Amino acid sequence: QVQLVESGGGLVQPGGSLRISCSISGTTSSILLVAWYRAPPGEQRELVAALRNTGSTTYADSVKGRFTISRDVAKNTVDLQMNNLKPEDTAIYFCYVDGHLGQGTQVTVSS
User: Which helix (H) or strand (E) holds 109?
Assistant: First the structure.
């Protein structure tokens, strides 16, 4: 059974940076797709960034140039580096791996 545990969320000032991480366990098959989604307050969940096993990436227009998704195969983790954070980035961030979704970690951008 696949388990995803997010960590690293918190409160950060506008313009600041934050790195959130997802620890993956319980899967023995090759992972095809990892991604981060987010759910802003009162809004639907949206795709933030995705990384395929081919190495190709997809980013939401709102985060291009500011966020970077990466994966450490040896550590079995997926990270999201977030720079130049804006108040509109405030949301619960969810890790996604091949059909499985984590519980989420809260990111709040506020002065």
Answer: strand 105-109
